[in-house]
Amino acid sequence: MKVVKLGELVSVQTGKLDANASSLDGEYPFFTCAREPLRISDWKYDLDAILVAGNGDLNVKHYNGRFDAYQRTYILSSKDQGLVDTRYLYHFMDTYLETLRAQSIGGIIKYIKLGMLTDAPIPLPPLAEQKRIAAILDQADGLRRKRQHSLDRLSALGQAIFHEMFGDPTSNEMRWPKIGIKDTGIKIADGNYSSKYPTKDDFVEQGVPFIRANNMKAGEISDEDMRYISPQKHAELKKGHLCEGDILLTTRGQIGNVSLVPRRHQNSNINAQIVLLRPDKKSITSEYLFGLFSTQSMKSALEGLQTGVALQQLPVGKLKEVEIIVPPMYSQQQYADKARSLTEMRIQSYTAMVSAEQLFQSLQHRAFRGEL
C-alpha cells in the first residue's frame, strides 16, 4: 500500500484564541485541548476539519462547519478531497495518537510540534477503499458509543435513586445528620509514592494488581492496561492494600473519579493518584458511600478543594475535613439493596462496552496495516 507523509495531503493551522474566549451561550463550537468542545459566539473557520489537541490530554475530533479553536489546537484540512477521505483521516489520526503521545515533549504538561503531524506516515489506498474502511470503522465506533451510552444511563439511574432517597448531599434539604469524614470512622489512606513507589524492575507480567487512575472507569476497575507487582513487593508496601467494599477516589489530575472495589480486587494495591476510603460497616455501607461520592454535587465539592495549577490534586488532609450526610443504617441498607441490582447490570453493560471497544481498536489497527 502506498504511504505518504501527512503534510502532503493536508493543510495545518493552529487556533489563535485563549481558552477564556469561550462563551456559555455561544452559537458555535470552540475546540480546545479538552475532549469536549466549549461554545463561542463568533467563528473563524468554516471547514471539514480534523482537530488535534496539541498539549495535555492529546485527542482528535472531526467537525464539518463553522467553529473557532484554542491556540494549541491543530486544525487539519484536506488539500484535495479527491485524494483523502476526511473520515478515513480522522480514524487514522485517532490511531496515530499512540505515536504522538510517545513523541510528545515537555515536563508536566506534554505537547507536540507541527513536524510530528506533517511527518506522520499515512497509508493511502484509493479513495473508494478509504471510504469503505471509514464506513466499517464508523459502524464499530457507533456500537461502542451505544454501549457507553447504556452505561451512562445506568450511572444516571443510580444517581437518581440516590437523590430520591437522600436528596442533594451538599445542600442537605432532607436535613440528615452531617459529619466530617474524619469523625465517621471511615479510614482514609493514600497509595504508595516517593521511595516506596515500585520501580520499573518491580513490575511483573503476572502478580498483584497495581491499580492506577486510568484503571478507574465508569465506577468499575478495568483490568485493561493493568500493571502488576510481585507478591514480595506488595508485602513490602505498607500502604494501599485493598479490601472488598473499599471506595477508591482519584486525588490527582482528574479529581473525584470513584470506584467500588469488588471481591476480585481484594488485596490489590493502588498508586499515589488514588486514596481508599474504608467505611465503618456499623455506621456506613460501602454502597451508600460509593453512591454519595458518585453524585455530581460531591464531585463539584471535591473539585472546589483542589490545589495546584499544572497538576491539580486533592490533599488528603482537606478530604478528611469534608462533611458528608449520614442517614440511618436502615435507609442506607435499602439503598444498598437497590444499588447491588444496578451494580450487576452495570457490570454486564461495562463488559459489553469493553468488548465493543476491543473490537473497534482491533479493526482500527488492522485497517491501517492493509488487513481490513
TrEMBL record:
This is Restriction endonuclease subunit S. One of its GO terms (molecular function) is endonuclease activity. The keyword Nuclease applies. The keyword Manganese does not apply. Pfam families: Methylase_S. Keywords: DNA-binding, Endonuclease, Hydrolase, Nuclease, Restriction system. Belongs to the type-I restriction system S methylase family. GO terms for biological process: DNA restriction-modification system. Residues 1-142, 196-338 form the Type I restriction modification DNA specificity domain. PANTHER family: TYPE I RESTRICTION ENZYME MJAVIII SPECIFICITY SUBUNIT, TYPE-1 RESTRICTION ENZYME ECOKI SPECIFICITY PROTEIN. It comes from the Bacteria.
